[in-house]
Amino acid sequence: MAAKPIVHLCEADVAEGLEEIAREELRNKLGRQVTVRQPPAAQALRGIVQFTHTGDLRALTTLKTVQAVFVVKRFAVPRPKALLGDEHFRAILDLIEQARSTQPDTFRSLYLSAAGSDSSVMRRLKHELSQRTHLVLAEEGDLLVRVRPSLWARPDTPSSNMTQKDRGWDVLVRLSPRPLATRSWRVCNFEGALNAAVAHAMALLTRPTAQDVFLNLACGSGTLLIERLTCAPARLAVGCDMSREALDCAQRNVAAAGCNAILWQCDGQRLPLADHSVDVVCADLPFGHLVGSHGQNVTLYPRLLAEAARVAKPGARFALITHEVRLTESLLAASQAWLIDRTVRVELGGLHPRIYLLRRSG
């Protein structure tokens, strides 16, 4: 008789606002191997997607719209001290071995993240885990272990009705030595570069196809361009930017990713493209923080939107992200060229930009 497949409790960290897009990627990529958990609205979790997974955990490390993926074990204990008991501690070690098996021989150090991490219990737990796993303790360890009050306990029961014993404690172990949003193709870093997982979500929103003529306005170091081409090939993929330094950086990243793309040094307000020649546009417009200023954006944004409208085919999709919310929404409200199909509010490093999915009127 075949062994019954193991069902793993898992969680993905995602940029707040992209939870549903990450759930869609899980379902589309892994199908019946995953069951996405939908907590009641009153207990909706921001920045977390919970699911169960059956099969090889390595499949989870291929997800592109999440920041990181963890395998989870819930312990029905009232206090973390009980995790040091033999039965529970062996279960934690087993959880760690499950995570390490996804990328053997790549974990060298360990970091324990927990409230009260300097308490005697947590210090002992860190020490014991380091001793038994032969991993060196480090502030940014390859093997990230989290300990927290459980978020997996009885989702149908209001939190106010639970005691801590009912809730228990969760131990989570990250499946990769670095966050999944840290892409291997990024060999050149550039100030203000967009988070790759967010860029991938934007690309998915445009419903990419192999027939697309794709334009990345103000492409910077190439994040949106590369993430679009990891979703699907394109008939033509072009990135443009005025900065030679940015394009040199993008060229290195594009080469490392093995993508087929054209990079142009040109002004996004005057593109060397024919009218109505582009199927999809993506842009990470200057926020006015690390790059540009609000005063510059007041002039720049309407010109970029107008030039994108000129080159876009009727019905073309345009995904853009910006923190200039009031400016962008006032311009779009007055625009006859662009219709808003969807708006997504995202949390990124303390900022709350919007992703706008637009459609060229026609």
Can you give me a brief rundown of this structure?
It is built from nine helices and 15 strands. It has helices spanning 19-30, 86-100, 120-133, 164-167, 196-205, 223-231, 244-257, 294-311, 325-334; strands at 7-13, 34-36, 48-54, 68-75, 109-114, 136-137, 143-149, 169-174, 213-217, 236-241, 262-265, 278-284, 312-322, 338-345, 354-360.
Structural features:
single chain, 362 residues, alpha/beta, VC0802-like, Rossmann fold, 2 domains, 7-stranded mixed sheet, 9 helices, 15 strands, elongated
Name of the CATH class of the largest domain:
Alpha Beta
CATH overall fold name of the largest domain: VC0802-like
Please tell me the overall pLDDT: 92
CA radius of gyration: 23 Å
Adjacency order of strands in the biggest sheet: 2-3-1-4-8-7-5-6
Strand content: 25-35%
CATH architecture of the largest domain: 2-Layer Sandwich
Number of strands: 15
Biggest sheet overview: 8 strands, mixed
Overall 3D shape = elongated
How far apart, in Å, are the first and last alpha carbons? 60 Å
Walk me through the topology.
Layout: E1 7-13, H1 19-30, E2 34-36, E3 48-54, E4 68-75, H2 86-100, E5 109-114, H3 120-133, E6 136-137, E7 143-149, H4 164-167, E8 169-174, H5 196-205, E9 213-217, H6 223-231, E10 236-241, H7 244-257, E11 262-265, E12 278-284, H8 294-311, E13 312-322, H9 325-334, E14 338-345, E15 354-360
Parallel strand pairs: 5-6, 5-7, 9-10, 9-12, 10-11, 12-13
Antiparallel strand pairs: 1-3, 1-4, 2-3, 4-8, 7-8, 13-15, 14-15
Helix pairs in contact: 5-6
